[in-house]
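B., you asked whether I could sanity-check this one before it goes into the benchmark set. Here's the sequence:
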Amino acid sequence: MEELRIKAGGLELNVSGESSTIKEASKDFYNHLASRAQRETDAKIALAERMSAKMAWYAKEYDEKHQAPPTEVQEETAPESGNVTLRMAQASVMSWRMLANRIKAGVNLAIGDKVDFQLKTGEEVTVVVTQSTEEYVRFESVDCVGGEDVPWSDAGNTKCGIAGSDVMKYLNEKIWVQLPEDLQAVIGSIKRKHKDHEGNVREYEFKLFLPAASEVFEEDECYGDEGLYEQLDYYKDRRHRMKGAAKGEDAEPYWLASVGSGDSTYACGVGGNGYANGWYASGASRVPVCFIIRKS
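And here's what the prediction gave me:
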């Protein structure tokens, strides 16, 4: 028998049962929280306290198995959209681990759910769930990150491939070190396909990556990237393809991982209006970030 204890507003609730019963109760609570939009402030606070207690239970169970120190808890709120936004507690070194534990425990995150956190520089970042498979949950920044315009390839062509590009150097060398350590610890490696300007497909392994044009656009709009991936449901809404230069800023063009077909000087991007574009690889544009957290 296991027990889930929830405290909120001076009240205490204990639920006892098998682990499957506890897990199901946690799932139901999470889904219920996601539907609690536009509630009074005191009700939102009470719900956040209940979710914090539930997440602390997950962390406690994990810590007992791995002999880790006690963890801090983050706040969780439900926005007007009906999706969930998780707010990582500032200075908490365990909050991303707790979210990863929830994912591994089978708690479902819906497409459109968001997580707010800070880079080490203090920059505010929101990532959104854009895909959930049997193996992982995929997160992408709602806006661009790092505050810089970066060339796809300073050499002026795409012959280096995505692995040798300046945009990947930017993600690997600048953005990675700015991520909180607890986020770095739970990001999983993923194999990503890339099609060069001659149509040859190669596979690379990344932790941080950019979306491919075929994941963002319909097949006839992805500049030669057809057949590599399928358009994600999240990006079928053009508004979701628009990204700010940084959080809270106006929409700006940004790079994708894909390159133009038949011409080694062009790389693919998204315009500030959310439509497909191609630019000279030596031109400078903003960069978003994608990563996954594995379910096992």
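One thing to flag: The two ends are 24 Å apart (CA to CA). Otherwise nothing jumped out at me.
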